[in-house]
Structures are given as C-alpha cells and as structure tokens.
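Input structure tokens:
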C-alpha cells in the first residue's frame, strides 16, 4: 500500500540519494502537445536542498522539452520518479512545480556549488523542483537490475569543449531554443556562466 509523506527526510531522502537513475515527466498545457519523459543520471547531478526542494543539473546533449514546459506561463508542473532496482521494492514520486535557473541567473553561483562533483561545461541549467506531493508505491513489478558503473562518455565529450564551443553546439541543435510544440526553451545564445 502506498504512503504519502509530508517532507523529504530520513529514509525517503536516503532512498532518493542512493538511486543511480531517476526520471522526469512534464507536459505542455495544450492537451495536444508532446508529453516529455526523460531518464536522468550522472552521479552527483541531483541534490536535496531541503525537506521540500530538490535540484538537478540539466545537461546539453538533448532537446529542452522539460525547460520549455517549466517556462510556459501558467505551467511549471513536473514529476520526478525513482525505482528501486535493488533491495526492497519501491517506487517514489515527487509531484511539484519546477523552474529552470539559467547560467546568468544570480542564483546560479550559489546553486552550482551543490554539484561540485558533477558540474562541467555541459551544464546548461539547474532545474529546481518544489515538492507538492511526495508518495511511494509498492514497486512489486519493477525488476531487479544490477548497477554496474557510470557512463563517462557524456562528461568526457563535453569536457573537451570550451564554453564558446558548448554555446555553439547548443545554438545549432534542433529543439533546444524552442520545444517540439514551439514553446520557448533554452535561452539562446546560451548565457555565460555567472560563476
């Protein structure tokens, strides 16, 4: 039987911090628009800021649907989900509202320090999620899977790019400045880092 939680603390926080992968889901307000579901990983790229707030690094390499949905006026809805692939079965969801903090935002320098192990030139935004509902489910149908190791290709690829090269990369990628549904996504040209 699933349970709701008032805050992200104790075993719930520990569970979140131990998972090597999580998923994000967002959607535009238009019912005909594209729903987005994305896997997220990279060790150290997700942090619990307080009992009701999480943040994760948004990296280059894909489109910017999540950012577009969070920026859409009147929207900002986001769900984060974790599955236990080892240990006791559990699925945990955090439903809430999110905002994208871009590289030129005054909050960037304070927030990016939370990600020292995962920060790099491929970081294009920080997504801050304010939890409205925290709940779990049994996870009995989630299979056991063994975690082997982090993939290093993403960090290595973007680690070879200068900030200018990364900005040029973002500018030429389809669906980075504008979402699949034509919503504003990542600001282009990519803002310089404030720190």
């Amino acid at each position: 039987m699933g349970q709701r939680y008032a805050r992200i603390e104790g075993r719930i926080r520990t569970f979140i911090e131990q998972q090597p992968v999580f998923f994000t889901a967002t959607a535009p307000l238009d019912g005909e628009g594209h729903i987005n579901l994305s896997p997220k990983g990279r060790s150290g790229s997700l942090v619990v800021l307080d009992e009701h707030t999480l943040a994760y690094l948004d990296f280059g390499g894909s489109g910017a649907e999540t950012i577009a949905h969070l920026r859409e006026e009147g929207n900002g809805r986001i769900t984060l989900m974790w599955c236990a692939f080892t240990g006791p079965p559990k699925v945990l969801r955090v439903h809430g509202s999110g905002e994208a903090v871009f590289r030129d935002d005054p909050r960037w320098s304070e927030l990016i320090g939370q990600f020292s192990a995962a920060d790099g030139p491929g970081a294009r935004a920080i997504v801050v999620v304010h939890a409205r509902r925290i709940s779990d489910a049994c996870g009995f149908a989630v299979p056991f899977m063994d975690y082997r190791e982090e993939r290093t290709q993403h960090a290595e690829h973007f680690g070879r790019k200068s900030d200018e090269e990364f900005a040029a990369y973002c500018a030429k990628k389809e669906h980075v400045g504008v979402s699949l549904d034509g919503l504003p996504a990542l600001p282009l040209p990519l803002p310089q880092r404030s720190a």
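Helices lie at 10-18, 65-71, 108-112, 153-159, 163-172. The mean pLDDT is 94.
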